[in-house]
Amino acid sequence: MKNIFHILLKEKAGQARKATQVQFGVPFPKGLFFNHRELGVKTDNGAVLTSNISTTVLWPDNSIKWCLVKTQVKFNPNESLKLIIEKHSEKYNSSQCSSGFIFETEAEIKIKTKNCLFELDKKRFNFLDKVINNNNSIVENGYCTLKTKQYGHLKPEVSSYRYHTSPSSGCPLSSELTMEGFFRSGTGELIANFTTTLTFYIETDIVRCDFTLHNPKPARHTAGLWDLGDPNSLIFSSFDLGVTVKDITAINWKINKDQPWKPLEQQPLTIFQESSGGHNWNSPNHKDSSNKVPYTLNGFECRNQNSVLHSGKKASPSFRINTNAGKVGVFIEKFWQNCPKSLSVENNQIN
Question: How many CA atoms within 13 Å lie on the side-chain side of 61?
Fold first, then answer.
């Protein structure tokens, strides 16, 4: 008798989805599976899905107790989909795929997805230096900047990098590039460290960027106090990621995912979430190093030059940009939750 496990997924947002990335954990009984490479995912009608399964916890006999499943699915609006996890006989064959792999030149790291080629500098992290779609440049001049009052604008230098392509029962599901490095002042003083991971989802040409800043200087805790504004605190005015989008033909934007797209008639547009938009948006818990709550706006504003187009409490904005070479979409996770935050377009530059 086959040992199979059923997972039920439900689309509740009323949106059709193509090659949507999903991941979830699955527990297994003791002594059942010992090799995650033998496991695969398919639908209840027998269609094998591109997937990657890894072991996260083992039983004492080294069988799999918990595994992490990453796969991609297609949904119709409000559809339910049953997935089956079981042993399979298919093996990963890289010769069948022309995308999903990371390779290096002397100065760059390149990642090929289904339709796009992404290029990044090996020595300085500029977010995405270039994105090419069908031999046409669609994104150029990526940048990453830490703005400080004391040291000015700082650029991140890469000290090390590593990459990994997740094998699957078909073509690779994703490729990950992790870079580590630092920000230095003009005199060479170490100001901050950073770690960033860019995940490239092969079939969708989607890129996810996670970025972590780290202050290497220990707090002094004078007189045992843990106050903000400690002499070794890192105080900065903004951290910026951005790219220039080429040959734009139209820009659409929306405040939340369940709203219709709005055409942008004229740049610039900035969506700025200053505070959480909740009942305690100006609570004393939000005091900064000057012992003041810095917020004056309860929620967010959409600004076009000097005018306010729209305001509200909680924003989860996104841009959809049409170009002569394809489309570019931009979305920031947990936008209102991790405020202050902004998303803007000006002079064809997304920040």
Answer: 8
Report the distance separating Cα 85 and Cα 272, nearest Å. 43
| pLDDT tens by residue, 77-107 | 889 999 999 887 555 455 556 556 788 999 9
Q: What pLDDT does 289 receive?
A: 85
Task: Write down the residue that tokens 């979409």 correspond to.
Answer: 329
Q: Is 349 exposed, middle or buried (0-12, 13-18, 19+ CB in 10 A)?
A: middle
Whether the predicted pLDDT of 265 surpasses 80: yes
From residue 58, alpha-carbon distances to 83, 167, 246 in Å are 23, 21, 49
Give the separation between CA 132 and CA 145, rounded to whole angstroms: 23
- Name, in order, each residue with C-beta under 8 angstroms of 121's C-beta and a sequence gap of 6 or more: 107, 108, 109, 129, 158
Residue 315, amino acid? A
What's the count of helices (H) and strands (E) in the chain, helices before strands? 0, 26
- The owner of tokens 């069948």 is 96
State the Cα–Cα distance between residues 14 and 30, nearest whole angstrom.
39
CA gap 175, 157 in Å, rounded: 22
**200 contacts 175 by C-beta, under 8 angstroms:** yes
Whether omega before 263 lies within 30 degrees of 0, making that bond cis, reads no
148: phi then psi, degrees, rounded to nearest 5: -130, 150
Question: How long, in residues, is the chain?
Answer: 351
For residues 28 and 316, what is the distance between their CA atoms, to the nearest angstrom?
Answer: 37
Amino acid residing at 81: L
Distance CA 310, CA 255 (A): 9
Quote the distance between the C-alpha of residue 49 and its chain's center: 23
| Residue 281: both structure tokens together | 């948006």
Q: Which of 81, 80, 18, 15 is nearest to 47 (CA)?
A: 81
> Out of 49-53, 128-132, 276-280, 342-346, which region has the weakest mean confidence (pLDDT)?
49-53
Residue found by looking up tokens 């996890």 in the block: 85
